[in-house]
Structure formats: C-alpha cells, structure tokens
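BUG: 3D viewer hangs when loading the predicted structure for this chain

Environment: internal workstation, default settings.
Expected: structure renders.
Actual: progress bar stalls at 90%.

Input used:
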Amino acid sequence: MPKQTDNHPILATAAQKLVEERAMALFQRPEIHQLRQRLTAQFKADRNAKLIDQDALIRASVEEHCMHACLTAANENPLDPRLVWSIAPDREWMDHAMPGHRFGQDNTDNVYRLAAIDENARYRITGRFTPGREPIEMGICAMRAQIGEKFIADVSAFIQPEMIDIAEDGSFEIALDATPTDGRRNHLCIAEARTLMVRDTLANWAVELPSALHIERVDAPPVDNFDPDKAAARALELGTIIAQWFFDKIQHGMFEVDPVNVLPSPVPSAGRGGLVTQCATGGYYRLGDNEVLLITADTLGARYIGMQLVDMWMISYEYRTRTSSLNHEQAVKDADGRYRWVISARDPGVPNWLDSGGHSMGTILLRWQTLGPDARLQDSVTSEIVPFDSLREHLPAETPELDAAAREKQRQDRYAGYLNRLSG
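Structure tokens produced before the viewer hung:
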C-alpha cells in the first residue's frame, strides 16, 4: 500500500480526508454488509464466475465497489461541495489506511475527482497547474448523474485547458452556473447537471502532476448537511445500480460482444455515453499456457494512447508495480510508427508486456485521446494469437529484449512514478 511522502500533496486535502473518514465509517454499517452480500451473489451467479481462479478477484471487486459507493455517498452534498479523488487503489495517507475504490474499468493513467453540484446554485473552481509538470490532458465534465448510474458518463457540458485563461504561474478560475456558456472562456454550464467529474490524464508518471483544485459555492454560505443514515441508504442504492448496470451494459454488453481475443476498430466514446475527447476499443482475452496475444495499433495522431488490462469484474489489474497498462510514454513505439503490445501470463522478455499478474484471462481496453485531424479509425488495430516460443518471429527485428534485471528496474521506476501523484 503506497504511503504519502510529502506534507503538501495536491490530492491529500482536508476535504479529501473528511470524506474518506466518513466513507470508511459508512463502510462498517449494516447497509454496506447487505450491499456486499448482494454484489457477491450477483457476481457469483454470473457466467464468468465459472472461469478458473476468479474467487479472489470477485471478493476484491465487491469490496472496491462497496467502498466507491460509500465514498460517493459521503460526498453528495451540493450545498458544500468537495472535489474528492475517486476510483483509485488503496493507500496509506493522512493518518489512515484508505481501501481501494475502483470500478468500471478505471484508466490507470487518470486521476479522477468527483463533486456533487446543484444546477440552481453558482460555484467557483480555483485551480493551478504546476508549470512544466502539467497533465497531458485535463477536462471537467458536468454530468446528469453519477458515473454508472445507468450510463457511463452522461456529459451535459465540458471544459478543458484550451477553453481556460491560465496565468503564467499555472493558476486559473472557472465559473459554474446554469447560464449558457456561449463561447465564454473560464465558464462551465451546469444546467441539468448533478455531478462534476475532473479527469487529469498523466502520461509521464514521473513528471506530470494532477491539477490542484478547490470548489466553493459563491451564491450562499456552505452548509454541511451530511447525514450518515441517508448516506448509507444512498450507498446501498448506488452500489447496487452501478455494479448491475456496468456488468450488464459494459462488461457483457460491450467488451464481451466480439469474439474472444479480438479487438474491433475503435469508435468515439461520446457516442456510447463516454468522454467527449476519446475514442476506444476493447474486448476480452483467454490464453493457453503457450499463447500470447499480440496487439498492434496505429497512433491516430492522438495526444494520448493507453493500453490496459482489467479483470473480468471491472477492476484494473495491479498497475503500480506491474505493467498491466502502458501508455505512449511508457511503451516502445516501433520504427513503422505503430505500437505493439504483448499480453501473456508469463514474461516474454519484451518492453511492451502487459502483465496481468499471472492471470490468463481478462478485459482489454485501448484508448486514444485528442485525435489527429486525419485519424482513420477503421482497421487501425489488429490482434493475433501467436505461440509464446515464436513471439520474436512476429515482432520487428529492432524489438529490445528485457532480462529480469531490466524488468525489475521497469517496475521500480513505475512505482516511483505512481507515488508522484500522491506526493506531488
């Protein structure tokens, strides 16, 4: 479990600490015990529970879904909003141990923050990018409900740095209200919205930092009306909806539609309720002991590209100390300008190995953000099963070899980079 190493990190705010403490108290309540039972029964009745080695993954997914529901319910106060880091792994910081609270096939390169809002109120976000260490992408979405509350991300309005005036020191302010933006800069229309989602995308983990952010209501004094009983009831409701909806509509309804070990051409995510700057493809894999899945993809001129493995229960495989995800900064691009990723249960000795921790099956996600103007999505991705022992015959001649020492350094560098987002 990572530990905070800096006294003034961007994410470890007083608001974060308060909401996490409330969420951990909710997590112990009988309502959440009931939620845990519901989700365990739901997952164990699913067809994927019959696959090998799934029991521990199911238990972990249930726990993280429940904690996410508690964290979200503890933070649903539009009268006194707080931007809270959500959809993240476990950590030790701020004098407590916070369990993981991932769900919905989280992107390992993203720092997600959520806040509850009321379209009838007015708010202000004050923020700052660390000069020279800005995230490769950042966006704030106004959404009509919580993520997974019967949709992926029902975005009503969106703002990104290109729409914001930012001072030389990286500071900025954004006004939020229900009036139309009509081309205004530093303004986000929150008509019809109930939730804000901030997404900082970090490509170079060792350098890039999430934005420092604070939200406040400006049309009335803040009122902290947190009610543990109402929050526990809401967590029970929300956790049930999110797990059922994501599993039916996303895991089964999207990622397990095409044949196993096949990735279709990417499609814009906005058309499927996702983020407006993104296109993506996904599928699922099952490999034999001597098989690897080789995935080749065009860059599409994108600002960001990320490849990732997730378990069959919508939780990212361990990514802080293993290369279960590799973005364009972390992966090696071949001389032909394309990326080739290798999925296998054991180490094939190549830089772009997606390491699932020995699991021979899982879910695959490949995302591009901010595409080039001439991006051609059709036929931009291929996938093929090849024998483990003859993998080199299917890779470019210049593909480097990684021995055990080089792999260990890759993992250590990766973990140090991950700690950057906690201590920056």
